[in-house]
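Recall from the previous chapter that SMILES is a line notation for molecules. Here it describes fe (ii) ion.
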Amino acid sequence: MIESLLRRIAAEVRLHRHNRLNRKGVVSESAQNYFVLHDILPKNIHEGLCSTVQTLNDSWVSKSTAWRSGSAIGGHELKDSVCAPWLEYLTSSDFLEDVRTRTGLANLDLVPEQDMNRMSLLSYSGAEGTRGDGADWHMDGSIYLGDRWAGILVLEEETSEADAKLELKPHGNRVVLPAAEMKNTLILFQGDHVEHRVRPMLPGEERVVISLLFSTWPVMTLNPLLRRYQARVNREFYDA
Ligand SMILES: [Fe+2]
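With both inputs in hand, we obtain:
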């Protein structure tokens, strides 16, 4: 009992310190790995998701802030949507075991269902005469006690450029991935340690991804400052 309390306090202190350093751009050298997992969904599930997502027209919340523009549907809304049956696979032990085996991250788990970032749908598009959707270089905050892993599962990436729109900067070096290989691929990275961006969409381009949030200890901090930070980010994405 005392031991687990001490472990919890140590994790809270570590997380608070991490977020403080993160804001100054200080990150851990040991958290710069990323994984690119192709063919992550069974073919029929990928196709089922792509076709049901097309029918979600009214549910998207479009937002444009200084650093990001795009549309999103949070996890709570997705649960009641036509996509729900197809999304069940992402919470199955088959899926989690596959990700754990392919990454070697044996403790990886999705964050709890109450968190709308556990699973959300993000859409980026570009239209003539407007600034295309995208997100500037940034690092995420973290509100979970374990290592935070952001997962971007690309459903569609209909773009005209050779490089995929999601770019990472592990160890400060920009990495681009081939756009042609992005469909049905999960990119897993520690977004609170690795800078990343979504390059602006050009007119006619379209990109739809499922954003997944994993942690090696998926217990949310009790720190009110960090929780308030997350509430502000949620409002920027979903009107939450
Ligand atoms: Fe991010």
